[in-house]
Write a structure and sequence with these properties.
Blueprint (H helix, E strand, L loop, with lengths): L6 E4 L2 E4 L13 H14 L7 H8 L3 H4 L7 H7 L13 H15 L5 H10 L6 H7 L5 H14 L4 H21 L9 E8 L2 E7 L2 H11 L5 E8 L2 H11 L4 E3 L2 E2 L3 H8 L5
Antiparallel strand pairs: 1-2, 3-4, 3-5, 4-7, 6-7
Helix pairs in contact: 5-8, 8-9
């Protein structure tokens, strides 16, 4: 009697593994994949598995067949003698949040983008970060933590995951508070607009009054202060306004602005 082929326990029961877990030393041929599709379909009550479940059950990866034998999984299923399953509906929010809650529990923290990619290599059914960003508008880790926390609070059995998300939210809140400037503190800087004749200067300073006096000495006519914006990021905010008015730049930090431009600048007290 020959050696027993290793087995993989999938969701459809115990079946022979075409590629034992952890072994990638030989390519799988077309006939082996077709046989595996038929075998797993039989174990699944005559219904072929979807691509993700097929991988979990057999160890055959999408890259083993995609672009080599078939362009689509449905083509492989048809060649094996089955009609492909109808398209699954798009992930609903509960499914996505549940999957991420399980991954957070596994890692003990919120996963990074790269950690999600790594996890998808072993579990292709895991929703990608694209699902979170495009379908649910969760673009940052803080937003993900808040949404998963909301889900875990209303779903029994996820108290540990809720605690992880709460710690993340608390840490983010502390960091935001430490970064938030206090108006009038010495750490603040300024982005200012001055007018001299028909031209406007947009510049920055950590001590606006001194800068205003310096400019009055340099220019033939004393410039008028139009408006000053207090900010914790003078270089960044100055660059923003320079970019916004770049088509009206005369040279250096001087611009020819109209009333609407000036009004837009004056609406900002703090930026």
């Amino acid at each position: 009697m020959g050696p027993q082929r290793p087995t993989v326990r999938g969701r459809v029961g115990v079946i022979p593994a075409v590629r034992p877990s952890g072994r990638h030393n030989r390519p799988v041929d077309r006939q082996e994949i077709l046989d595996a599709i038929r075998q797993t379909a039989t174990a699944n009550g005559g219904k072929p598995l979807g691509m993700g479940r097929f991988f979990n059950a057999t160890g055959i990866r999408p890259e083993d067949w995609e672009g080599r034998f078939w362009a689509r999984w449905s083509d492989a299923v048809r060649e094996a003698g089955f009609e492909p399953n109808t398209l699954q509906p798009a992930f609903d929010e509960g499914h996505v949040l549940d999957a991420y809650a399980v991954l957070i529990r596994k890692l003990g923290r919120l996963p990074t983008v790269n950690e999600v990619l790594l996890e998808k290599r072993s579990d292709p059914t895991l929703p990608s970060r694209t699902v979170l960003t495009r379908r649910f508008g969760l673009g940052t880790q803080t937003q993900v933590a808040a949404k998963v926390l909301e889900y875990c609070r209303r779903t029994p059995g996820y108290e540990d995951v809720a605690e992880i998300c709460e710690r993340r939210a608390a840490a983010e809140g502390d960091a935001t508070s430490s970064r938030r400037p206090t108006k009038g503190t010495e750490a603040d800087g300024f982005v200012y607009m001055l007018r001299s004749g028909r031209s406007y200067k947009i510049g920055r300073s950590n001590a606006f009054g001194r800068r205003e006096r310096d400019l009055a000495i340099q220019l033939p006519n004393k410039p008028d202060t139009v408006h000053v914006i207090r900010t914790d990021d003078p270089p960044g905010i100055e660059a923003y306004w320079h970019e916004r008015f770049k088509v009206k730049r005369r040279g250096g930090e001087w611009f020819e602005l109209d009333a609407a431009d000036v009004a837009a600048f004056r609406r900002r007290k703090f930026q």
